[in-house]
Specification:
The chain has 18 helices and 19 strands. By secondary structure, the chain is of the alpha+beta class. The strands form 4 sheets. Strands 12, 13, 14, 15, 16, 17, 18 and 19 form an 8-stranded antiparallel sheet that branches. The radius of gyration is 23 Å and the shape is globular.
Amino acid sequence: MKLQSFFTSILLIFFSLLSTPKPVSANHSGFLQCLSLRLNDTNIIPKVIHTPNDTYFSSILSSSIQNQRFSSPNTPKPVLILTPVQPSDVQSAVKCARRFDIHLRTRSGGHDYEGLSYVTHNKPYVILDLRNLRSITFDNDNRSVWVQTGATIGELYHDIGLKNKTLAFPAGVCPTVGVGGHFSGGGYGTLLRKRGLASDHVTDARVVDARGRFLERKDMGEEFFWAIRGGGGASFCVVVSWKIRLVDVPSKVTIFNVTRFSEQSSLKIIDRWQYVSDKVDDDLFVRVMLQRSDKNMVRASFPGLYLGPVKILLELVNREFPELGLVKEDCKEMSWIESVVWFAELGDDETLIDVLKERTQASLSFKAKSDFVQEPMPVMAISKIWRRLEEEEAELAQVIFTPFGGKMNEISENFTPFPHRKGNIYEIQYLNYWRGEEKEKYMRWVERVYDEMSEFVAKSPRGAYINLRDLDLGMYGGVKKSKYEEGKIWGVKYFKNNFERLVRVKTSVDPFDFFCDEQSIPTFRSLDVI
Ligand SMILES: Cc1cc2nc3c(=O)[nH]c(=O)nc-3n(C[C@H](O)[C@H](O)[C@H](O)COP(=O)(O)OP(=O)(O)OC[C@H]3O[C@@H](n4cnc5c(N)ncnc54)[C@H](O)[C@@H]3O)c2cc1C
Ligand SMILES: *[C@@H]1O[C@H](CO)[C@@H](O)[C@H](O)[C@H]1NC(C)=O
Ligand SMILES: *[C@@H]1O[C@H](CO)[C@@H](O)[C@H](O)[C@H]1NC(C)=O
Ligand SMILES: *[C@@H]1O[C@H](CO)[C@@H](O)[C@H](O)[C@H]1NC(C)=O
Ligand SMILES: *[C@@H]1O[C@H](CO)[C@@H](O)[C@H](O)[C@H]1NC(C)=O
Ligand SMILES: *[C@@H]1O[C@H](CO)[C@@H](O)[C@H](O)[C@H]1NC(C)=O
Ligand SMILES: *[C@@H]1O[C@H](CO)[C@@H](O)[C@H](O)[C@H]1NC(C)=O
């Protein structure tokens, strides 16, 4: 450790001597020329380059905006959108952007909570939208898959389900999420306790680096490869495809959903849930969801997945968690792929598996924040959340508790940049949704709940999950004098001790900070005054 920090300070000095501020003068016509020359095919050019004058520009822009908060007439718009049709187009985009000082934003599924894949207020920008790069290719034994980053996790699940009902992948719940952002930030859903994060199962990647080179794992080296499996994609490169290793699931799994309408009985279950959900057999995953019902009353539901048959599930729950009151009628056996459809609230019928491929656009605005819980909260704290959910601004709000433990306890904090492993009982997500332009009161509701919970959650640091990005944690252009010092403010919340290592990787693979956004990993070089 000593040696490492010594090395770090040498690096710091070295880079602060090296750097001289570079004049920024984006040349968009030069960029377009460069790109057209490199694409070198009159058929391809109109498929790849979209200017605001093109009829389809605004529909391409909005079709994967998943948070309407960033879709108003006042939201800044890109000067161009590029939709590569082959990996070499990504390379061309990066090379030309670098040469003509163009600021790129990479977008895969467009689910970024703060819209960073398609919006910035700071400067003119170009969106590199990977929607056309979405092939999914199985290797011979069907266990490893190359998936291009423009694919959604729904498309991936769909193809796995068609291949083999006993293979699965441990990623998120919502099928429209893009594998580009999701795997690069971690990624988790119902298989979290059994298998860990999506990024824990990435075995290789093809990326385009800041110099426009194609690199695979063997070329980029293990530190670079480590960084993109949880450190957020936007700071290091454009990931073009991931190689992942599938996991086994039984041919029959069981889903259930218990709902309670009274506060008293809900709190009793949740209280007990805090002591059981992370310790119980890792075949069992039970979430807590607090939200208002159609009748506008707050209620708790406990949707769950068990990797086995109903009979054994009921025995397990009766033994370990009888407070849940689970009965056979709450449960249904199905294949894993059907459970994916069910969890996405798209039905519970195998014939519906095609819906996993639908690329629907979200119609609501939202704001969210995340926390990690390391000691059970007093019932009074959960009761406070319940009160908040009764408030007028919380009509569409949700508070979700996701249990950790199991595999998450076995993986060390520095195996990937995602550091929230052993010691965390569960994660909380506070979400508020709304319709229409007015946003302040809904945003403030999320802040209030978050403030109120501060004393009950992980404190030093108060953790956050990069995939549930929150710009309230800070962004560049704020209070500190250097980009490094600023980046550290939210960097340690997302990455804890892995932050410094991410900065080292960043400094070595992208020293000129070509891949950057409001919360990207800084270089040591950016110790300079901004
Ligand atoms: C409705 C909804 C449900 C969700 N459910 C879950 C869930 O169940 N579990 C979970 O863990 N998370 C969940 N998330 C969060 C989700 O994992 C993150 O928002 C994730 O970053 C989205 O990836 P994307 O490709 O769709 O987003 P994008 O907005 O396209 O990208 C997100 C970030 O990654 C960067 N990026 C995207 N593609 C690449 C690439 N190819 N190379 C380099 N950088 C790239 C972008 O520049 C941006 O910074 C959900 C989000 C939403 C909106
Ligand atoms: C932009 O780039 C083009 C092509 O290299 C060049 O001809 C032009 O002079 C540049 N414009 C500016 C303003 O630098
Ligand atoms: C570009 O186009 C020219 C003329 O059609 C052709 O000779 C050349 O091989 C092309 N280059 C690339 C990289 O495709
Ligand atoms: C869009 O059209 C206007 C008017 O026809 C033209 O002046 C402008 O150069 C065009 N912009 C682009 C990016 O093609
Ligand atoms: C791979 O999947 C296909 C079905 O898509 C199947 O026919 C083939 O036998 C599988 N290969 C192996 C080695 O299991
Ligand atoms: C499906 O995968 C399992 C491993 O989970 C394997 O044993 C089986 O042979 C595969 N079946 C097919 C049809 O590929
Ligand atoms: C579980 O039940 C609640 C309350 O009825 C409902 O809102 C939620 O959508 C259900 N969850 C799933 C995954 O179906």
